[in-house]
Each structure stands twice: as C-alpha cells, then as structure tokens.
Design a protein that fits this description.
By secondary structure, the chain is of the alpha/beta class. Helix content is about 30%, strand content about 20%. S-adenosylmethionine binds next to strand 5 and strand 7. Pathway: Purine metabolism; 7-cyano-7-deazaguanine biosynthesis.
Length: about 220
C-alpha cells in the first residue's frame, strides 16, 4: 500500500517535462529534513490522520492527512476524476521510501508514462522506463547521504540553489557521475531574486539548464 497525501492534475512545473499535463501522486513521509522544503506537510505519517482516498482527492489546502491505497485504487481514481493527462509524476515526501515497481508497472500497462521526483537518499525501486529526476540533498538535518546509484540512474539531476555553496556541492556530487546522457538543472529555492540570478549565472558558466517552478509563478498547484 502507498500512503498518499494528495492526487491532482496540473502542468508539470519543473525540469524537462515543464509544461506537460501531468497527474501528481504525492506520497506521505520524508526523513531528510530540508530547511527550505516546500512540502513539510508530507514529512510525518500520523496514524490518526488517515482518511479515505475520496477525502484526499478533494483537498483544497495542504494538510498532513493521507490515504493508504494501491495502484488499482489510483487508476480507478484517475478514471473517476476524468483526468486526461497521460504522464504521472510520483513525488512526496520521499517517494523512494516505497517500492515503486508495482505502481509504475500498473501505470505503464494502463498507457501512462511515469516520472519520479526523488532526493536520491533511498534506493530507486522502479522500472527502467520510468523517468527519474534526482534532486540531491546534502547536509540536511536528517543527515541522509545521496546515493551514487541514484545519481547514476537519474535521467535528470535538478539541484535546488540559493547560495554559492550549493553549486560547489553539486560539482562535488557530479565528480564520479557520467553526465553525458543526463540533463542537469539548477532550480532556484523559491522565487528569491538572488537565487534566480545566481542560478542563471551558473547555468551559463557550466552549460546547465534552468528550472524555475513555473507553477509557483502561475499560482497553480
Ligand atoms: C518537495 S520535493 C519531493 C520529492 C523528493 N523528496 C525530492 O526532494 O526530490 C520535489 C522537488 O521540489 C524541490 N523543492 C522543494 N522545496 C523547494 C523550494 N522551496 N524551492 C525550490 N525547489 C524546492 C525539491 O528539490 C524537489 O526537486
Ligand atoms: N505543478 C507542479 N509541478 C511540480 N513538479 C514537481 C513538483 C513537486 O512538488 O514535486 C511539482 C508541484 O507540486 N506542482
Ligand atoms: S527530500 Fe524532498 S520532501 Fe524531503 S525535505 Fe527535502 S525537499 Fe522536502
Ligand atoms: Mg511542489
């Protein structure tokens, strides 16, 4: 069973799929503890806050409520909601705390493509067709280490930046990673002007790409 914080259809606002209609599945639970995390309501799994999936999908605000579901429940929900997107983004929380093989295989069998947003701090358990976005997290409260295997598996690496030291961390992380077939993105932390200017300058310097969380500029989920 997967613990799901929310399910919604929107436009992917980050990375190389930016602009693609997508169904988001946000899984509950993350031990990494990034101070600037924009989804802190997904960190803890509180048993009294378990709800039916029907209540989760009609959420109008961010809450810590979650539902326990399997892949079939999610596919039935997509049909019930009339979602038209054919791309599914599995995020969190930290989705790689879960074995994502059953979910991704069921999505593929039903004609969807899949993408995972992960911090790279857990083994990635997903089929090869799944597009993997690793947003490596270093020196976080949880003390979790980015796994080299996650960086190697990544189709894209999307690094959140606000300060010069974040660039140094990324360069350090990439030292032992073959990046020839990977897309490398810098993503400013929130919409801070300074972070965005730093990201633009460093993208030009290193020939990396810029990802700006388009949904936050648009005021959509
Ligand atoms: C909320 S995380 C969930 C998935 C996974 N735990 C991870 O960190 O990749 C989804 C994406 O949002 C990014 N993110 C989180 N908070 C952010 C913020 N305040 N500004 C910019 N990006 C942020 C993360 O780096 C990650 O790429
Ligand atoms: N529109 C939209 N795009 C996103 N891309 C990654 C997101 C995430 O929270 O993982 C996200 C999100 O929350 N909304
Ligand atoms: S790893 Fe992802 S969900 Fe967890 S705290 Fe960091 S940004 Fe938030
Ligand atoms: Mg988000």
């Amino acid at each position: 069973m997967y613990k799901v914080n929310e399910v919604f259809e929107t436009i992917q606002g980050e990375g190389s799929f930016t602009g693609a209609p997508a169904i988001f599945i946000r899984l509950q639970g993350c031990p990494v503890g990034c101070s600037w995390c924009d989804t802190k309501h997904t960190w803890e799994v509180k048993q009294p806050l378990r709800q039916p999936l029907g209540d989760i999908v009609i959420k109008t605000a961010e809450t810590e409520h979650w539902a326990a579901v399997d892949a079939a429940d999610l596919l039935a929900l997509f049909r019930h909601e009339g979602y038209q997107a054919k791309h599914v983004v599995i995020t969190g929380g930290e989705p790689c705390m879960y074995d994502l093989n059953p979910l991704c295989n069921a999505l593929h069998a039903a004609g969807y493509s899949s993408q995972i947003e992960t911090s790279g701090t857990f083994d990635i358990k997903a089929p090869l067709q799944t597009w993997v976005t690793v947003s490596p997290k270093v020196n976080m409260a949880g003390g979790y280490k980015v796994l080299q295997s996650a960086l190697d598996r990544a189709n894209e690496i999307k690094h959140p930046v606000a300060m010069e030291k974040h660039i140094d961390e990324l360069l350090q992380l990439l030292q032992h990673t073959d990046t020839t077939a990977k897309l490398i993105y810098l993503q400013p932390i929130s919409q801070q002007r300074r972070a965005t200017e730093l990201a633009i300058a460093q993208c030009k310097k290193h020939n990396w790409r810029l990802s700006v969380q388009v949904h936050k500029y648009l005021g959509i989920s």
